[in-house]
Structures are given as C-alpha cells and as structure tokens.
Specification:
CATH class of the largest domain: Alpha Beta
CATH topology of the largest domain: Fructose-1,6-Bisphosphatase, Chain A, domain 1
Helix content: 25-40%
Oligomer: single chain
Structural class: alpha+beta
CATH architecture of the largest domain: 2-Layer Sandwich
Number of domains: 2
Number of strands: 15
Radius of gyration: 17 Å
CATH superfamily of the largest domain: Fructose-1,6-Bisphosphatase, subunit A, domain 1
Number of helices: 7
Length: 253
C-alpha cells in the first residue's frame, strides 16, 4: 500500500507543478476559498486511482466530495492544499492523502512538489521526510516557540484566528500564517516549527498532519486538550512540550 500511495501522490503533485505559475482560478467557493484547474486535475488523478484500487473503501475529497460508500476504511484527499499560495506563485502548497481505519489515522502522505519534499507516516512506524525519519522540536517554552496558525472559512473561525494571533504573537518567538495546513503540520512534524493552531479545521486539511505529528513524537488535540478525532471542530498540533501552555490560551477562545 505504501508504494501505491507514494507513487500516486507524486504523480498528482508532479502534474500540479506543471501548471504552477500558469494556472487560472476556475471558481470561488467562498470568500477565502478558490479552485484552480490544478485542484480538479489532481482530484481526478487521486480519486480515480483510489476507486479502482479500493472499490469498497469510503473516499472523501475536498473537491469531489464523498463516494457514498460506508466502510471501516476512509480515504481523505486534499488534491491541492494551499490553493491561494499556489495561485500567487508561492511554493508553500501540497497534495495530500490520508487513510483512516475505524476513525483513526493509519497512513499519511503529503507531497510539496515545489520543494520536492515527501512526508510519509504509517501508524506505529514513525514519520519520514524523503525517507529520513523526523522528530518534532525540543522547544520547551512558549516564549521561545515558532508558532503558526490557520483557520476555516467561516467568519467565526476567522474571528477566533485573529484573537489567537493577537495572543500568541505577543507570547511566542514568532507567529505566522503560512497558508497551507499541509505545510504547517509537516513543518511541526519535522521540527521546523513548534505548533500549528486551526479553528474550524477540515479533515482533508489536516488528515495527514495528525498522523505525521503523532508519529514524529508530538501531540494533536482539540482546543480543550482532548485527543483529536474525526468529529473535532478545532485542531492544535505541537511538539508536545509546549502543548499545555497552548491549551491554557486556546480553551477559552
């Protein structure tokens, strides 16, 4: 299964990269959400392959929705995460796939074609970047942490994100919105940053990141500190060492 998923995600990411700096917006889904031709091309590549390989598995894609099959196995697809970044020529975008079994993530892959970086994890086997095992950072204090944040498309989520930014910007070493949950969770797993906070997170945005961060030694919860699951509305992933400090801030937002 690993070889199949790695080959598939590289194929879709390579196709996306062919259109980089040339693609045009196809439609606007919401005030902060756009769709490009690359989103649709990558979606077709991934979903078609999954349907053929696993005809009895459930599939949920950001662009094409669900396949209306009930199964213990759920494939979650984000064909192009960071579409706005992609549309303006920023290299911080990814294509990603995750597999859940009975509600728990068991396999994750995220490919950043502009940086030629492939993140991969299997439950109980660790997290890897281009075949090299990765670990979260060892930062212990929030004041020394590099924090990132994102948000869902609802006004309430954006408003909460602004409140979160106001607080953590003053408390951490630095805080930024990179524009791609795939990139931001990958960076936490690789120890490049110390956390990612997302009010109103969608499973396709953070599906792979949940397993990547956990397998890299970090923690993934909702804003109250409960372990993240498919029904969670909010998402915070960190190196684990600063998690309690973050929850103190987030649980009242």
């Amino acid at each position: 299964m690993k070889n199949f998923v790695v080959s598939l995600i590289k194929k879709s990411g390579t196709e996306i990269f062919k259109h980089f700096n040339q693609d045009k917006i196809v439609k606007i889904k919401a005030k902060t959400q756009i769709v490009t031709q690359a989103d649709l091309i990558a979606d077709k590549i991934i979903v078609s392959a999954l349907k053929k390989k696993f005809p009895k598995h459930e599939i949920l894609s950001e662009e094409s929705g669900g396949n209306q099959i009930k199964s213990d196995y759920l494939w979650v697809v984000d064909p192009l995460d960071g579409t706005t970044n992609y549309s303006i020529g920023s290299p911080l975008f990814a294509t990603q796939i995750s597999l859940f079994y009975q509600g728990a993530p068991v396999l994750a892959a995220a490919f950043f074609p502009a940086m030629n970086e492939l993140f991969f994890a299997e439950k109980g086997k660790g997290a890897f970047l281009n075949g090299r095992k990765i670990k979260v950072s060892k930062t212990k204090e929030l004041a020394q942490s590099f924090l990132t944040f994102c948000h869902g498309s609802k006004k309430a989520d954006i408003s909460r994100a602004m409140e979160i930014y106001r607080k953590i910007k003053m408390m951490g070493f630095d805080s930024r919105q990179l524009g791609s949950a795939a990139v931001e969770t990958g960076f936490v797993a690789a120890g490049r940053t110390d956390c990612i906070i997302i009010p109103g997170a969608h499973v396709w945005d953070i599906g792979p990141g949940v397993l990547l961060v956990r397998e890299a030694g970090g923690l993934v919860t909702d804003f109250s500190g409960r372990e993240w699951n498919l029904k969670s509305q909010d998402f915070v992933a960190s190196n684990g060492l600063i998690h309690a400090q973050l929850i103190k801030i987030l649980k009242n937002i």
